[in-house]
Each structure stands twice: as structure tokens, then as C-alpha cells.
Specification:
Strand content of chain B: over 45%
Largest interface: A-B, 14 and 23 residues
CATH superfamily of chain B: YVTN repeat-like/Quinoprotein amine dehydrogenase
Oligomer: heterodimer
Helix content of chain A: over 70%
Number of domains of chain A: 1
Distance between the termini of chain A: 37 Å
Mean pLDDT of chain A: 82
Order of helices and strands of chain A: HHHHHHHHHHHHH
Low-confidence stretches of chain A: 1-7, 272-279
Radius of gyration of chain B: 21 Å
Largest sheet of chain A: none
Order of helices and strands of chain B: HEEEEEEEEEEEEEEEEEEEEEEEEEEEE
CATH class of chain B: Mainly Beta
Shape of chain B: globular
Chain lengths: 279, 332
């Protein structure tokens, strides 16, 4: 497929890689220059871990549910949800940079590149996901000192899980960014996307507990892709693969990415129309 | 260049993962059988400690609680509180093969280190019955305080300790003459006591007092009191019950009942090192003979938790019968 595309457009695989590395490097540089972003990305889950989890430790209690093999403290339970939260925020923040880039003209520079648009957007997503993986490992390191330890194999198996979930959440962010006209609208994303996704998921409470209190909420949690991203990460961290979660995350990722590619397609997407409206 | 470094790191990671699997496969844990008394379901669950699964459930009489293995590992004794007897389980056939005359309402018992005598507390009778294991007959009866429960024998088999819950005392009994030689007042509702293997200290838990008393058994005096504090857990839920000390006396594990934790206490300094989360209302436990694991019974969650003694981590909880009370472990 790639070869056919390369032949058609006259690009070699090496050139595609150069393009990818260029975009990843740009994202990495931006990340390294924004220390506050790194610190805030880390502080957010740590506040949840140290303050929220400590307060709820006794009231909630967690019974044994897979992938756990014994009783776990609440902070151990919410760690995978906080990892997914890091990726969710990162995905949305990447989308914020898309809006910023569009305002400053950076996105046009990217999109006028002769490479296929899908490749450019996928590269941008991958770059954002790799940044989120760095944040996750920094979080895991601090969590380790807080007695949140996973089996050694989990620290390796989590990488593919983070790649898949990061790409899914990133493409959701990208899809959303295509309909945001101004940077200020990002507050709306917080209210209408990030918070509902985070709270109506298995990140903070096990699904069986949600089912006990509200069946409709349980159904909402079940269709929330963030729930499945959290479970994919949770199982991977304990050396297991949750195939159902993997399939759902991949499916949602494909859906969001297709949507984002279409939205950023000048021929039929939302971008030109909005551009014209703005202009 | 960067890609090469990433590749190397990735391959290195996979290599390390495979190596750890290989090491685990090369040194499997020793296999032992754990016998768990289930107070409510009137049975004893047999758990394979290597596979960490329940392999058989042996029906018993009413209300099995105190449980211990014979020194040669051929038999397991289990006290049946409502049947006023102690059942004998054959550990090869995994079935009940006989019984001992325990006296009324047997709860907890201890076998002397020389393996010859069994001492059982008769909770409703304020007495201790002495049973000769060779003849399977009662050879003595000792009057103690109200609601006797915790039983311990000194490593030299010379002194028997019985703690009585309502009288709040530890009774020091001369094993030869069956005479109480000293009584020591303990914090409220003492439940259990255990000797260090060198006989230098006796550790006794007080359920309502919420403390562990470190006793000098020669002087019959409390030399130190250890209290427990767990962030987020109400003080009244911290009810110390079971005590398990490693053979080298370096670590003590105290089951804290409804606090759902096992406290790890330093054998020398008596400082609490760690609290390990287990199931609800953790009661009594037993080490595997190699001391790799401590297996503790969680009464209200109907399971036993395996504690990795070297790592001080709970590795797995395994379902058993209803209201598990105590554990006895022997080589398979």
C-alpha cells in the first residue's frame, strides 16, 4: 500500500521517514522548550494520586478484579487511569497546538508539504504520542517511589498499549481541533470532552461499582473509548493483553483518524470553509 | 543514530523481560500444601502453594477453627468448636481419619516442639486440655482465665502460654507439672502469642487494646509495646490477632483483623516496617517451610493471601471456603 503510494507520488520510504522524523523532532523540540508543559503534565496526575487517592483510599476499597491477583490500594487502581489521563490531555494539547499553528500559519506550512496529508497528520499524531509516552514514564517513575509497582514485564508491554491509546486519543484531539476556530475555545474542550470522558470511565472507579450505582452510567462508560484505553493500559501494565479493549481502541482510533484526515482535506474538509469564513 | 539507540534500548528491554521469565522458569517455587480451616462452611480447603490454587475441599464437623500439622507432616489436626472434638486429617488421603478428645469448645491449640503433646484451649470452659498424641488420649486439664484462646509453647517445650481474652492475661504454665507459674496482665482482649525461635521474646497481640506486647518470658514482664497506625484506617479497626515470626527472628507479621492489613515488624528494633494490604478481617497465617511465603486467612473475603516474605509484597489472593480462620502448611 505504502509502496504503491510512494511510487504514485514519487517518494521513497526513506523520504517518508525523513518527513516523519522531521515532524517528531519538531514536536520534541517544542516539548523540550516548554518545561511548564512537561511539569503541568506531570503535576496533574500526581495531584490526583497524592491527594484524591489518599482521601478516598478507605472509603472506596477495591475488590479483586482482573488483571489484579490480590487486593490493591486505591492509588494502585487509579494509576492506569491517570496514565490514560496524561495521554488524553496530551492528545488535546496537541490539538491545541494545531489550532495555534493554524492561527500562526504553521499548519499551512505543514500541509503544503508534498507528502500525502494522511501521512503528515499521522506523523504529527505519532510525534504527540511519543511525547505522551515520555510523560507517562516520568509519572511511572514517581509512582514507583509511592509503592505503585507493576511487574517488570509490564513496563515494556505498556509501550505498544500507550502507542495505540495515544494515537486514538490524539486523533480524537485532531478531529476536535478541526472544528475549533480559536484558541480560546479550548476551555470548551475541557468541559465537554476531557472531563466527561475521564469521569465516565473506569479510570476512577471499577465498572462493577458504577454498575451497582447506576446502570445508564455504566452503559455510558462502556461506550466511552477512554474506558477501553484505560483498561488496555491497565492490563498491559500487569503483563496481560485485554484483546477486547485493544480491538475497541484500534477501531475508535481508525474512526477518529479517518475523520481527522477528512476534516483536514482541503477538497471536502472543514478547514477551507472555516478558513474562508475567517478570511 | 537516534534510531539505532532506540532500537538497542527496545531490544535490550525485550531481552531483560525474556531473561526474567527464564529465571522464573528455571527456579520454580517449592510446592507445599496449605490446609485452611473454613469456620462457616465446615470444611478444610487444601491449597497448592506453588500453583496458588485450591485443589480440594475436605468436609469436616462443625465450626473448624484452630489448625496445625503434626511434626512429621502426616496428619493435620483441626479443632471443631461446635462438635467438641479435634479432627485428624490424613494428609496423603486428604480425608478425616480420626479424632482427639479435646474437651468442650476447642478453639486454638498448639503442638509442643518435640511433637508429643497437644495443648488445646477450651474457650467456654476456662481450661486447657492436654492431649498425648501417641495415645490420642487426654492426660491433663489446666484451669485458666475466662475465654482462653491463644496457645504457645516455648522452644524448649518446658513452658506453655495461654492467653485468656476476658481475663486479659497471659498464663505461664509449667508443661511438666501442668501448674500455672505466673500470670501477666496484658492490654485488653489478648488473642494470640508466639515465641521467637531462640525463646528470648514472646509476642502477644491484644485485639481491643490494638497493640502488640513484647514480653520477656523469663521475667514474665512486658518490655515493650508496639502500636499500629495506618493512614486512612480508623483506629478501632486495628485489631491485632495472628502473629508469625520468621525462624531467624528478624521479622514478625501481625495480622490486624478488620484493618485488612498485615503489619511487618522488625524483630530487633520492634519498629513497624510496612503494612501489607490483604483481604477483609485477616486472622491467622502460616509460613511455607522455606519461608518464601506467608499465607494468611482473610475471614470476610473468603480467601487466603500469599505474602512474599523477601519482597514484603502480597502476590496473590486465592479463594477458599467461607470464613477462613487458620492455616497449616506442610511439604507436599
Amino acid at each position: 500500500m505504502k509502496t504503491a503510494a510512494s511510487a504514485e507520488r514519487g517518494f521513497t520510504l526513506a523520504q517518508y521517514l525523513t518527513c516523519l522524523i522531521g515532524i517528531v523532532r519538531r514536536e520534541a523540540l517544542r516539548f523540550l522548550h516548554q518545561r511548564e508543559r512537561f511539569i503541568s503534565a506531570l503535576v496533574r496526575p500526581l495531584v490526583w494520586l497524592f491527594i484524591f487517592a489518599a482521601g478516598f483510599r478507605q472509603t472506596l476499597g477495591v475488590s479483586i478484579i482482573p488483571p489484579y491477583e490480590t487486593y490493591v490500594l486505591y492509588e494502585v487502581y487509579i494509576a492506569p487511569g491517570l496514565i490514560a489521563m496524561i495521554q488524553l490531555f496530551n492528545g488535546m494539547q496537541s490539538s491545541l497546538t494545531m489550532v495555534y499553528d493554524r492561527e500562526t500559519g504553521g499548519i499551512r506550512t505543514l500541509l503544503v508539504s508534498p507528502f500525502p496529508r494522511a501521512w503528515l497528520l499521522a506523523s504529527k499524531l505519532l510525534a504527540g504520542t511519543l511525547v505522551s509516552i515520555l510523560q507517562v514514564y516520568a509519572f511511572l517513575l514517581i509512582a514507583w517511589f509511592w509503592d505503585i509497582e507493576a511487574p517488570p514485564v509490564g513496563y515494556f508491554l505498556i509501550i505498544p498499549a500507550l502507542l495505540v491509546s495515544g494515537m486514538m486519543l490524539g486523533s480524537l484531539g485532531m478531529l476536535i481541533s478541526s472544528v475549533i476556530r480559536q484558541l480560546e475555545n479550548f476551555a470548551g474542550v475541557m468541559n465537554f470532552v476531557i472531563f466527561p470522558m475521564f469521569f465516565a470511565s473506569s479510570a476512577l472507579y471499577p465498572l462493577w461499582r458504577i454498575k451497582e450505582s447506576s446502570l445508564p452510567l455504566y452503559d455510558i462508560c462502556q461506550v466511552n473509548p477512554f474506558t477501553h484505553a484505560t483498561e488496555l493500559i491497565r492490563f498491559a501494565l500487569y503483563g496481560q493483553i485485554d484483546w477486547a479493549a485493544l480491538a475497541i481502541v484500534v477501531a475508535f482510533g481508525f474512526l477518529f483518524m479517518t475523520g481527522a484526515i477528512l476534516a483536514y482535506d482541503p477538497a471536502r474538509g472543514l478547514l477551507p470553509r472555516r478558513g474562508q469564513a475567517a478570511g | 543514530m537516534q534510531a539505532a539507540i532506540v532500537n538497542r534500548l527496545f531490544l535490550g528491554g525485550i531481552g531483560a523481560g525474556l531473561l526474567s521469565f527464564a529465571v522464573l522458569a528455571a527456579f520454580p517455587a517449592e510446592a507445599y500444601l496449605a490446609f485452611v480451616s473454613n469456620e462457616k462452611s465446615n470444611s478444610v480447603s487444601v491449597v497448592d502453594t506453588d500453583k496458588m490454587t485450591t485443589i480440594k475441599t475436605i468436609p469436616t464437623g462443625q465450626r473448624p477453627r484452630g489448625i496445625a500439622a503434626s511434626k512429621d507432616g502426616a496428619l493435620v489436626y483441626v479443632a471443631l468448636g461446635d462438635d467438641d472434638t479435634i479432627s485428624i486429617i490424613d494428609t496423603k488421603a486428604l480425608r478425616v481419619v480420626g479424632e482427639l478428645p479435646s474437651g468442650e469448645d476447642p478453639e486454638q491449640f498448639v503442638i509442643s516442639p518435640n511433637g508429643k503433646t497437644l495443648y488445646v484451649a477450651n474457650e467456654n470452659d476456662a481450661a486447657v486440655t492436654v492431649i498425648d498424641l501417641a495415645t490420642r488420649g487426654a492426660i491433663g486439664r489446666i484451669s485458666v482465665g475466662v475465654e482462653p484462646e491463644g496457645m504457645a509453647v516455648s522452644p524448649d517445650s518446658a513452658t506453655l502460654i495461654c492467653t485468656s481474652e476476658t481475663t486479659s492475661m497471659a498464663h505461664f504454665i509449667d508443661a511438666a507439672s501442668h501448674q500455672v507459674v505466673a500470670n501477666l496482665l496484658l492490654p485488653s482482649r489478648p488473642r494470640f502469642s508466639a515465641y521467637k525461635s531462640d525463646g528470648s521474646e514472646l509476642w502477644a497481640t491484644s485485639e481491643i487494646g490494638g497493640v502488640l506486647s513484647i514480653i520477656d518470658p523469663a521475667a514474665h514482664k512486658i518490655k515493650e509495646t508496639v502500636s499500629f497506625e495506618i493512614p486512612g484506617v480508623r483506629r478501632e479497626l486495628i485489631q491485632p490477632v495472628g502473629v508469625n515470626l520468621t525462624k531467624d527472628g528478624k521479622l514478625g507479621f501481625i495480622s490486624l483483623g478488620p484493618a485488612n492489613r498485615v503489619a511487618v515488624v522488625d524483630g530487633r528494633t520492634h519498629n513497624v516496617l510496612k503494612y501489607l494490604l490483604v483481604g477483609q478481617r485477616v486472622w491467622h497465617g502460616e509460613f511455607t517451610p522455606d519461608e518464601k511465603y506467608l499465607v494468611v486467612a482473610n475471614g470476610l473475603t473468603n480467601d487466603v493471601s500469599f505474602i512474599d516474605v523477601a519482597a514484603l509484597k502480597v502476590v496473590k489472593s486465592v479463594q477458599v471456603g467461607e470464613l477462613p480462620w487458620g492455616v497449616a502448611i506442610l511439604p507436599q
